[in-house]
Amino acid sequence: MFAIYYLPIHLITSLSLILYLLFAGICFTDDSIGLTPMTTYQEAVIVKKHCVANPSSSIKLMAGFPRSLSKPITVFCDFDGPIVDVSDRYYSTYHQALTSTAEFYREFSTQQITDLSVQTQLTVLTKAQFWQMKQNRVPDREIARQSGLGDQEIDFFLQRVIEIVNCADLLQQDKLQPGVTWALGLLRSQGCKLILVTLRDRDEAINILEQHGLRRLFSGIYGTDNSQAAYQNYAEIKTQLLEQAMREHQVTQMDADWSWMIGDTEADIFAGSAMGIPTIALTCGIRSERQLSQLQPTLIKADLLCAAHYLVGVNSLQVCG
Predict the structure, then answer these.
(1) For the segment 95-151, what is each residue's pLDDT rounded down to a tens digit?
(2) Do 79 and 198 form a contact (C-beta atoms < 8 A)?
(3) Is there a domain that residue 226 lies in?
(4) What range does the domain containing 145 cover?
(5) 20 to 30 A Cα–Cα from 300, which one of 111, 113, 200, 270?
(6) 203 with 227: CB under 8 angstroms?
(7) Residue 38: which of 24, 19, 18, 20 has the closest Cα?
(8) Domains identified in the chain, total number
């Protein structure tokens, strides 16, 4: 163990971020991501240089280094939710499907087809209302009903959702979650192996990662060739993908203490549990904290950056009592 050093108060403001990044093992270089791992020796030299000359303070630096420096962690991570925010796309899909349904049945109404129900007054949910329902697992059928559609109209609406949710113009609305680049870089800088396990079409996932310069951070990418699998959230397929990833990367249940599954839905938690590895559920995706807590994951975190902080143990500054 390294000794405990004390950092003076007047240096905290200027050095806290620098020391934080140093403990994360991050250096800035000229490449596109700018993340390179430092050795434990380099970290020790830099911390000691800044701390040993100032032994008195009410804030102490606990000079232990992240456990990932001694043994790498394998992180299996979902795509939609933890890495990519799909809320805009899903809401636009809802809105467009609702509009298409209303237009379709109004057209039949003008043709005096009386055996079909026609709703002229729709209640279009706000994005906040819609996303809250999705996070609380309100079925699409009930969302449609609360938007003013009748039973026959709902069937048309649901079919329209399936048809357009993966259209190119809507897929363009997907965006990276805040802090994702930092989170992935932090994990890799500490030697963590990153493996993507997603129900999204594999080629789609690779394309998005390449657009943001993140493809090279992953040791493996496992996805489907079914464009509907992600929206339908098939837990059985996710488990099969995780099993394949673990087998091909030689991760067994004996490595459970150093392997994690990170996701935002029941499919991710069920898959991790089925394969005997701990799970981290993220509330930034399509399930609320209340829903996730019912699944009993190992941990619940706000987003991928919070999960990364936990996994590499970068919370090194502690205030003395």
Answers:
(1) 999 999 988 888 765 555 444 444 457 899 999 999 999 999 999 999 999 999 998
(2) yes
(3) yes
(4) 87-171
(5) 200
(6) no
(7) 24
(8) 3
